[in-house]
Structure formats: C-alpha cells, structure tokens
Amino acid sequence: MKEFNDAMTMPDRIEKTANGSILQHGKLNNRIYLMKLAVQDTESIIPRMNQLADMQNYSKIFCKIPSSAYPLFLAEGYRMEGYIPAFYNGKEDAFFVSKFPNDQGRASVPVPRLQQLHRLLSDMATGNQQAIDKASYTIRKLGQRDIPAMTRIYSDIFKSYPFPIYDPEYISEMMDEHVQYFGAFKDGKLAALSSSEIDREAQNAEMTDFATHTSHMGNKLSMLLLRHMEHEMRQQGICTLYTIARLQSVPMNKTFIRTGFTYSGTLLNNTNIDGKTESMNLYYKRLGKI
User: Fold this and answer.
1) Residue 124: what pLDDT?
2) Do 144 and 100 belong to one domain?
3) Is 225 left (phi over 0), alpha (psi -120 to 50) or beta?
4) Is 146 in a helix, a strand, or coil?
5) Which CATH number belongs to the domain containing residue 18 in this structure?
6) H or E, element range at 221
7) Nearest to residue 224, comparing CAs of 249, 200, 191?
8) 196-215 burial by CB neighbour count: b if 16+ within 10 A, else e?
9) How many structural domains comprise the chain?
C-alpha cells in the first residue's frame, strides 16, 4: 500500500530549461526522459543529463531528438530504439534514443513478448479497418466539468502511471496548455477516455492516456476514440500522430495496427505503468504529405 501511495503522490518532475528543452525525471520511472530538445541545448543537454543520472542513480536516460542531433548522442553511448519519419513539421525525423548508465537498467530483453509482437505484426494487415458498433456511445471533447469522472477512471485502472493523470490539478493544467481529452459516453456517463498531446510548433500529436471503465471493456472504445482523435487532429492541421504503447498490451497494439499505424521500435524497460516497469512499443501515422 505504501508503494502505491508513493507512486500516486510523488510523480516524476517536469522541468524546462531556459532555452525550452523539457525534461521529465524521478524515481517513479527511475529514468530521465528528454521530451523536447531545443536547438540551443543540443551540445549542453548531454552532460547535464549525465550529471543528473549520476546524482539520482537513474537506471535509464531516454531521449526524443531530431535526427540531426543523433551523432552527438551516439558518440556518448546512446543507441536508437525507435524512430518516426518526418516528425518535425513533416520534414525532419525523430529518433528515440536511450542509454543505461548502470547495470540496474540492463534488465533482460522480454523475448516472449517480442516474439508475441512479431506474430501480431505478421498476422495483422496494417490499416485493416474494423467495424465498430458505436450506436450506443457518443464521443465528445472533455472539459473542466468532466475532470472528476476522468480522474476516477484513471485512478481505478492504473496502480501507477508515468504522468499524474489521477491528479485533477494536473488534468486541468494540461487542458489549459496543449492536451485535448476525449471521452466516450453511454447514458450520459463517461465510459472511456484518451488524449491528444499536441506540439503545434512541430505539427505532431501523441495519442495517449487511454483508459476504459471495467464495465465497458470489450467494446473497442479505444479504437472508437482513436479514430475520433485522428479526425480532430487532421482538422487542426497536425501532420503526424504517434503513440508509445505497452508491449504487453495486445489489445492496444491491435488497436493501433488496425487503424493504420506503423510499428517503428520498442523502448526497453522504459515506463512505470500499472505498478511495474514495462517495455513500450512505438507507432506512428502520417496525416499530411511529406
């Protein structure tokens, strides 16, 4: 119970440099995540992260960077775990690179899960659009008045999460900034939800924070929400969609494959979710012309 309470009340910190780079780090995920790299920080950010990892004994440093910055990271021992083509403004690729500073982070590769993923990718045709019975559900954008219902579902579904989505203040702040939340309703009650985390400057959006109330599972609501968000992002001029999905969640991987997303890498031992550290799969989908 104490570990659960610690995870729920002590989320990782998000810090912004003077130039605009964004770092997330803390003991929940036991890692540093370079979420955004400002051009001015390209040469200085690596020693800064190395120092922070040494001080806190983090097990992994994980970075999302423009491809042009990769030679510097490669020289410092980082290796690519995934990529998204034309990620930045429909032009420059994004590389997802990582480094394990100590033996603590070098857990064994999840071979059975990766073999399962191979079979899944081999058996399913990308872009296979499945029919969904959506007559009994309505989809709409969520607002401040929906936050209590949102946090109840998130708290019920996840024992831990890489971001404090169970905190009403966090959800409210994200709504006011760059995250749009969407919900599936039945009989006026929230049944499932998800979010689009938008980077308008780079014209991309992360499809994330999917959760379905236990009483509504099995109705393909994640797929219904994903298609709705894709339509919304297209209308808003977003060029690229992507997600970081749990390797062990077959339903979520199927959802993205069936809606035309392309698998492009696995992030090993990367994210604390639902009470344990898991490997994550990277998927992307182009909406605009390259």
Assistant:
1) 80
2) no
3) alpha
4) helix
5) 3.40.630.30
6) helix 221-235
7) 191
8) bbbbeebbbbbbbbbbbbee
9) 2
Q: Identify which of 67, 89, 82 has the alpha carbon closest to the alpha carbon of residue 288.
A: 89
- Does residue 84 share a domain with residue 157? no
Maximum average pLDDT range among 6-15, 126-135, 232-241 = 232-241
Q: Look up residue 78 and give its two tokens.
A: 């980082």
User: What are 151-180's pLDDT values in tens digits?
Assistant: 999 999 998 999 999 999 999 999 999 999
One domain, residues 131 and 57: no
- Tell me the mean pLDDT in the region 17-42: 96
Question: Could you give phi then psi for residue 214, rounded to 5 degrees?
Answer: -55, -30
Paired tokens of 95: 């590389």
231, containing H or E segment: helix 221-235
Rounded CA gap, 269 and 276, in Å? 10
Kindly state the tokens that stand for 271: 């994210």
Whether 60 and 30 have beta carbons less than 8 Å apart is answered as yes
Q: How far is 290 from 279, CA to CA, in rounded Å?
A: 30
Residue-wise DSSP of 65-93: EEGGGHHHHHHTT-EEEEEEEEEETTTEE
What is the separation of C-alpha 93 from the centre of its chain, rounded to a whole number of angstroms?
17
